[in-house]
Amino acid sequence: MTGRPDVKIETELQFFGKMTASISHEIKNVMAIINESAGLLEDYTLMAEKGLPIDPERLKVVSRRVTKQIRRAVEIAKNLNSLAHSVDHFQKSVDMGEILELAVGLSTRLAEMRSVTLDLKLPTDPVTVITSPFHLQNLIWQVLDFAMDASGEGKTVGITFKKEDGAVKIRFTGLAGLKTLPPDKFPTEKEENLLLILGTMIHQDAEAQEIQLVLPK
Amino acid sequence: MEKVLLVDDEKDFLETMAERMRVRDMDVTTTTSPTEALKKAEEETFDAIILDLMMPEMDGLETLKKLKKKNPDLQIILLTGHATVQKGIEAMKLGAADLLEKPADLKVLTEKIKDAHAKKIILVQKKTEEKIKHILAEKGW
Predict the structure, then answer these.
(1) For residue B45, is it within any domain?
(2) Alpha helices for A3-95 (secondary structure H)
(3) What is the pLDDT of residues A152-177, one digit of tens each?
(4) Confidence bin at A64 (pLDDT 50/70/90)
(5) Which residues of A touch B55 (CB under 8 A)?
(6) How far apart are CA B68 and CA B62, in angstroms?
(7) How much is the pLDDT for A1?
(8) Calpha distance A133→A80 (Å, rounded)
(9) Measured between CB atoms, does A77 come within 8 Å of chain B?
(10) Per the CB < 8 Å rule, is B16 touching A33?
(11) B75 found inside a domain
(12) What is the pTM of this model?
């Protein structure tokens, strides 16, 4: 007995699978750009060998492009590393800003595929909570996945949080589509189990066009 | 000179690939938008269309379906970050000329484009012959 409610192993693996598949896809995109940039430099070299003058500005463009992609790859690897380490401890003090930055970092590409923008606004004061980082990431993704469908014409999901009455409230805003979706569509059993593990509550407010997650501090 | 339409939402990939193709004497048009690609394919003729499989707005398979519906003779090569057998079969069923995994070898891609160009010429010749036959039969010459 672990003393915590069970989440189906499929739910946990599916989340991990979804995130790592997206990350590996993005890494391949980065590698494709670096590969073509290396190829382009080779083309320039061949041209120079044939006596064709090469504009240094063109070399600078390629160099800047590679640097940009390396930075992007470092960020992707950092997110993957943070996700991997989120299973190190199932009860840990975490910085809510860092949790949400990681959640947005992991979900941005998936959001872009659905033409949705994730707009994260963090408060200036840091807030920590004691929680299971992996399950919280999983729950935030499930909410975001649903929120993207509910983002309506605006196609933007706002994400923010604040301390309130000894708890931390994460708000997912701009969900104009909540009004048109059946109220029993969300949360499903999957999210209910995660809510139980985390001792978290969820509220849907169709009028305010938002979903709130309330975490005990 | 092969006329190619390159469609990919990764702008840096698009620009680098297009420049490399131009160095190889190809006439390259680029767009990051599948919707724009549909428009361009309607306005101009291309020997080959290189299409990324995963894009916002509309995925590659959906774009392929729409392009083929507009013009079944279009030679479309799909590029993907991760090629699964299932996606490959699906793409072929929808009429893709080929499917390559990223990072793609430009030599291989260039060969595929040349193949697509040759196929297009054969199709155009075939259609012209059919048209001539039809005219001859109609006029009774």
Answers:
(1) yes
(2) 9-49, 56-85
(3) 888 999 999 999 888 999 999 999 99
(4) very high
(5) 113
(6) 10
(7) 44
(8) 14
(9) no
(10) yes
(11) yes
(12) 0.87
Q: What is the ipTM of this complex?
A: 0.85
In a domain, B38, yes or no: yes
Considering only CB atoms, B56 lies closest to which of A31, A37, A112, namely A112
Residues of chain B contacting A112 with CB distance shorter than 8 Å: 9, 56
Q: Where residue B12 sits, what CATH number does that domain have?
A: 3.40.50.2300
Identify the DSSP state of B105: P
Per-position b or e across A140-176, b if 16+ CB within 10 A of its CB: bbbbbbbbbebbeeeebbbbbbeeeeeebbbbbbbbe
The b-or-e profile of A71-99 (16+ CB within 10 A means b, else e) is: ebbeebeebbebbeebeeeeeeebebbeb
> If you ran DSSP here, which 8-state letter would residue A197 be given?
H
Contacts of A26 in chain B (CB under 8 A): 81
Question: Would B109 be classed as within a structural domain?
Answer: yes
Q: Are strands B76-80 and B48-52 parallel, antiparallel or unpaired?
A: parallel
Helix (H) or strand (E) holding B55: none
Q: How many structural domains is chain B composed of?
A: 1
Q: What is the dihedral of CA A146, A103, A65, B113, to 10 degrees?
A: -40
Q: Please answer whether residues B64 and B95 qualify as being in contact, where contact means their C-beta atoms are separated by less than 8 angstroms.
A: yes
Would you state the pLDDT for residue B104?
87
Give which of A113, A112, A139, A107 is closest to A23, Cα–Cα.
A107
Containing structural domain, residue B15: 3-116
